[in-house]
Amino acid sequence: MSFDSTIHAKAVELTKLSYQMTAAAGSGHPTSAASLAHLTTVLMYQHMRWEPTNPGHVSSDRLVLSEGHAVPIIYAACADLGVTIGKAGDGMRSMQLQDIETLRDIDSLIDGHPNPAVGFNFFDAATGSLGQGLSVAAGIAAGAKLDGLDKRVFCVIGDGESREGQIWEAVDFIIDFGLKGVCPIFNCNEYGQSDTVSAQQSGDVLKAKLEAAGMDVLQIDGHNPTQIQNALSSHAQTMYDPQAKPVAIVAVCVKGWGSPSQQGDGHHGKPADGGGLDQALTELEQTGRQVGATADMRLTTSAISEKKPAAANRKPVMSFSEAATAFGMTDQVIKGNFATRRAYGLALHALGQAFDDVVALDADVKNSTFAEDFYKDDQLRDRFFESRIAEQNMISVAAGLSAAGKTPFVSTFAKFLTRAYDQIEMAVNSGANINICGSHAGITLAADGPSQMGLPDVAWFRSWTTVANHSGYPAFYVLQPSDAHQAYALTVAMAQHEGASYIRTLRPDVEFLYGNEHEFHLGGHEVLTAGRDLLICASGYMVHEANRALEMLDGQGIDATLVDLYSLPFDQEAILDLANQNNGMILTIEDNYGGGIGSAIADAVSADGGGFNVRQMCVRRIPKSGKTPDDVLAYCGLSAEHIVAQAMSLLQLTTA
User: Fold this and answer.
1) DSSP structure class, residue 44
2) CB atoms within 10 A of CB 379
3) Which of 605, 603, 534 is nearest to 563 (CA)?
4) On the chain, which terminus has fewer CB atoms closer than 10 Å, C or N?
5) Does the global pTM surpass 0.85?
6) Which of 67, 169, 386, 391 is the catalytic position?
């Protein structure tokens, strides 16, 4: 019984620490932590192949805590094991038991929910917004599979959060790609935040659902050390059996294990304090005696595999013209127009050939986003992950791939990204290097109507451009290319940037505005015409519509400057200098709902305090289907004629 008794003893010790640290913080979830005491102990002290002194080792097994609120039990183990914490350059050190007293402090590395970006490298991704961890685990495992590593990725999931549809998107993805290195562990402790969980999330029903999806399921007592170890060993054996199904573990646990006074309803997210803390600790001592908790054997983590992935190889990327020739698109170029979505696909293909760390994901629209250019290349196909109609899972998988050292490009319609905003936010919080393409953006999609048009996307992504990420860069760059050369160059620039970027591409073909000689960069803009009366700032398709308007304005004797404001954020000083050269008159034009480039320029003007006059043109009514982009632009008041009218009004002129 030495194994069981030793695991029990350590589980009691870690649970006590969980109660003590949450009491010191005045907040936290000790009862959820207690339900994972034995699972955590067997995993971190005995079963996982990892090194506490190097928790981020590329070849080590990984643990993703999807139910991030239960993190005190992990912190307790890390403090006990002396896990290395901190950021490179700021001082790395071993975690000490006294560190647990700083839980949730503003200057602490011990955050309220898991987050590697604050300096806790045991974790690969920020979790706590429930339902996302299994997708992240799948992404880490997919990266390991590409690198030929046999690492295992354990993911602990709460029974309550298993109601989230993303969990089942991830299960399908794991089975689709044969990611047997992922070991989902469902913590069935029967209680959510406000009530018991639904019977649909019971251990028995979860087991049946997982089996129906195509997994082998091991249902165990989550507080029985031998059962836990045997289940984990069974999972390890299936990794090398080509006939075996992916394995999941359903662990029946007790919320508030070891402390009867902390069990049942009403204890979620409530630390014990005062007499309640003393009672909980006394009860844990009593429970330890009842289960024979005695530390009579030495617990040691398992050795890491010696195998390491090859270093990423990056070669020079072809120019747009070279890629068009190499990939058989010369005829399209000769025609003189080229959709920015097609240019994105061309660049993604070229990047895949040049950068072997680039991977691509799409959500069943690859023939529309042109991510299929990557997929159709036999040399790249194993780095393409068709995620099906499951955008939330796709984004979190990409975050996992980023944690595995890959550079993911994620593509779908801009409209469909809205359902994954939470997942995108968590990826940014994690410090993920993630590149997102929202295709079919704006109202020029026309015939398919507003159910397919990305319209609030610029405002949402633009909010991230006002925030610094963990490295001091904008949390997102938002890129709206107006032609194929620009789209191609900016896609390449995204791959070379360490951080998050969003590129917005168009369905209709557009004329070329630039050539191979033009250079574009994140944060840049391009002055297309220089004038003195009015500064027009436009992006994407609206640059072409503004060009049409310039000819009409010239006929009215108005000399306007046109800026292709293809990036957010942008050089505010340079744009305001241009505005000053145009009497402070600024007209912004965009084919999305408000809160985009117009608001960004208005913010810059407000901060400057100068005498500027800003007029914003954007989509101000819910659009509808139209047979052509011109039809919908006119319907929404964004045609060249409308631009001219707004310019004249701004300048307080009447049409001649």
Assistant:
1) I
2) 9
3) 534
4) C
5) yes
6) 391
